[in-house]
Design goal:
Helix content is 55%, strand content 12%. It is an alpha+beta fold. It has one domain. The strands form two sheets. It has a four-stranded mixed beta sheet. It has a two-stranded antiparallel sheet with strand order 4-5. Helix 4 crosses helix 7. The N terminus is likely disordered.
Length: 317
Amino acid sequence: MFKKELPLPTDSGKKLNWTPEQLSPKVEKISLVEEEVFRRLVPKFQALRINMDEFGEVYPKKEIERDKQDVKIKKTLFEDSPFYRRAQILEALLAEQIELSDWFGESATTIVPAEIDDLYHGVDLATEFPQDNADEELRMGLDVTVSKGLSLTTKLLLIKSKIEKGELTEMKYFASESLPDFRGRKRMPSIIIGLDPRTINELASLWLMVDRSKNPNPDTDPIDREILREQAREAQQKLAHHGAQVLILKEIELQLEAFSNLARKTGHSEIASQFEKLLALTRKILSKKKISKADEIANDSDDTFRALRKNLEENFN
């Protein structure tokens, strides 16, 4: 998302204060539907974030306060940007649908990272897949983008650089119900996911229809309420089975294959193994997803998906 479209810090430690115009000169305004979803859904999503103040036994108070101040400063660069709002909507919708509609399979759970990990470490959302042994749990960080330009390429090249060094993405403030006794740093594979504005607006419209039926105006006629409820049931079914989930899983599959090949090629078998386990799991989840031919065509024409695929072909072969 735009909040990380400014890749700060880089591997070299140098901070790049690029402007929105430099990164993407053509910024689409978000729709009225997206504005309303942003107001209704995103605050609930933000409330689920890991609280940095709960890590007082892990990090010195001064360090936590410094991280909080870094977050505050960086947010002033983008929080009114259409990039920020649209990407926050996608993050929130994705987190909800992974949990409620099994977009990533029945066992997947989500973690909403602390803002420092979101803004500086490229982890907008973390997904876990329970295993028999909690210490072997599969997890990955999701870096959500609504860009198909420079920032997408930058994100992929940063991941490539890490893999070549034998490194994975780090969450500094990691906490999970799967590891109740652990708080601290945790490394995991990082994956970029994104949808074009057309698809995000469609998902937002479906979500809004469902939410309005749950929270109708007090003076709504009983007959109209029943109509709303029926429309909402249909919208929830469309949302739960939307073709976007397959598109996102295919984005994940393409990257995991490219990343595992690079890790093997550069002699980092341990992290290659992590990518390969996630790849096998992703393909298993995909095998159970059925979408219409029309959805397949829509997915193949998604601008962000096409840009991601082209970047992988150019930079990971």
